[in-house]
Amino acid sequence: MMKGKLTYPEIGQQAEAMAAAWEQLARQQDWVEKYIGNPAYEEVIFIGSGSSYYQAQTMAATFRYWITRPASAFPSSEIFLFRDQSSAKQGKKLLVGVSRSGESTEVILAIDSVRGLENWDTCGITCYEDSGMAKQTECLVSPFGKEKSTVMTKSFVSMTFMMQAAIAAAAGGGYSNEMRTVMDQAGAKIAEADAFAKGLIENNDFIKTIYLGMGSYFGIAQEACLKLKEMSYTWTESYGTLEFRHGPKSIIEQGSLVVLLLSETARSYELKVAEEMKAYGAYVLVITACAGDDTAFADAVFEIGAIDVSDEARAVMYLPLLQYIGFWTAVNKDVDPDEPRNLTQVVKI
Description:
The chain is built from 15 helices and 10 strands. By secondary structure, the protein is α/β, with parallel strands linked by helices. The protein has 2 domains: 7-172, 3-Layer(aba) Sandwich (Rossmann fold), CATH 3.40.50.10490; 187-332, Glucose-6-phosphate isomerase like protein, domain 1 (Rossmann fold). Helix 4 links the parallel strand 1 and strand 2 (71-75). Helix 2 runs parallel beside helix 9 and helix 11 packs parallel to helix 15 (319-332).
C-alpha cells in the first residue's frame, strides 16, 4: 500500500471540511458577535504553535484588513513568557487561541496566563469540542477538521477558513459572499493539484525549495515550508517575497525550486522577484488566481481560480497544491508522511 494512507485522503477532504465549518459557524453567530465583532477590543491577538501560529498570521492579516482594527499574531509561548514585550499593557485585549487538538501546552498556558487580568478576554478555535482549550475558554469548533494523521492538512484549511468566515461576518459588506465563493470552488482544483504536484516532483530533482508570499499569504508560505519539512525532511525556507532579495537570494542555484504564492495586490512587484530568481537558475513555480502574459516566463504555473475575490479570501485555496508537494516529495523519497520523524500530533511540555 502507498505510504501516507492517512495523510493523502485528508488532503483531499478539504472542501468537505470547509463546508462543515461553514455550517457550524452559522450555529455560532453569537460567538462571532461576542468576540470578533466586538468593537470594545482595542487589540485582537491570535496565538498558536507551529502550523497554528502560521494560521494565526493569516487570521490576523485578514482581521486587520477587513475589520480595520489592530490585530497581531504571536507564538503562544510569547504570551505566557514575554507578554509585556508582545503587547502594551494598556488597552482592552482579546486573546484568540488557535489549536487543532485544543491540548497544546503552550496555548493553554497562554490563556491561563491572562485569565483574571482586568483588560484581557479569551476565546479560541479548535477541531475538538471536548478539548482542554474548549473547556478553558469559549471556542469555535471545526467539526470535520479532526485528523488521524500527525501533519496538519484539512484541519489547517478548515480552521483558517472558519475564522476568516467569522471575520467576514463581523466585517459585513461582501466578504461573506467571497468566503462562500471560496467554499463553493474549493473542491474544483483538488484533483488537479494532486496530479500537478505528483508530476512536478517525479519529473524534477530539486535540491532546495523556497516559498515566497506576502500579506495574508506570508503565513501560508511558512506553512508550506513546514509541510515539506515535516513530511519529507527536505531543506526548505520561506520568506516575504520582496524580502528574499535582501540577502537570502544568495542561496539560489541550479536545482532550486522557488514557489511564489502570487497575490493580486502586489502582482507586478512579486513577479519581478520571481523573474530575477529564474535568471539566477531557479525553477520557478507561480501559483496564481489567473495566469497571464506576465507569468509566461515561469517554468510552471498553477491557476487556483477565484479571481473575483480578495487575496485574503483566496488564501486557503493555495493549500492543497502546497500540501500535495510535501506529500509527493515524501513518497518520492520513500518516506512515510504518516510517520514524521520526531513528531507527535499534540505537543506537550
